[in-house]
Design brief:
The chain has 136 residues and is mainly alpha-helical. It is built from seven helices and five strands.
Length: 136
């Protein structure tokens, strides 16, 4: 999928080498929650070890979220999978196949991203619900 594409690592990015880049690889801490909003699709790491990183940080920006297979203990990942916006990959071939699907169907990322955003929106309002049940 990345063959022939211009990929730039964030820590090596300059004003000049970012021009025309198709992939920006974020290889440092502290930026992801604010950068996801620029993505068409996201990969959230950690799913090949004991768990995964925060899927909602990406999903809130209306983008589909890829993650590894060790996600069963994470309610948000399970919800994203159920609504079709969470895409589990087990290896590089799975990633290539799914990315090819996005290339073959240019509107797919937007459609799945809208599902991701709707999922996050459906999970909001807990404070309001709790306060409504509390009698003061």
């Amino acid at each position: 999928m990345l063959e022939g594409r211009k990929v730039v690592r964030y820590t090596e990015a300059t004003e000049e080498n970012v021009k025309g880049a198709e992939v920006l690889m974020i290889n440092c801490f502290g930026l992801l929650s604010s950068i996801y909003g620029y993505a068409d699709v996201t990969y959230v790491g950690g799913g090949f070890g004991v768990g995964i990183h925060n899927t909602l940080e990406a999903a809130v920006w209306d983008v589909p979220v890829f993650f590894g297979p060790n996600n069963q203990r994470f309610q948000e990942a399970q919800g994203l999978k159920l609504c079709g916006a969470g895409l589990e990959i087990g290896n590089a071939d799975d990633f290539r196949r799914l990315m090819q699907g996005f290339e073959d169907h240019p509107t797919l990322a937007k459609e799945l991203g809208e599902k991701a955003g709707a999922f996050v929106e459906s999970m909001t309002g807990a404070t309001r619900k709790i306060l409504a049940d509390i009698s003061l």
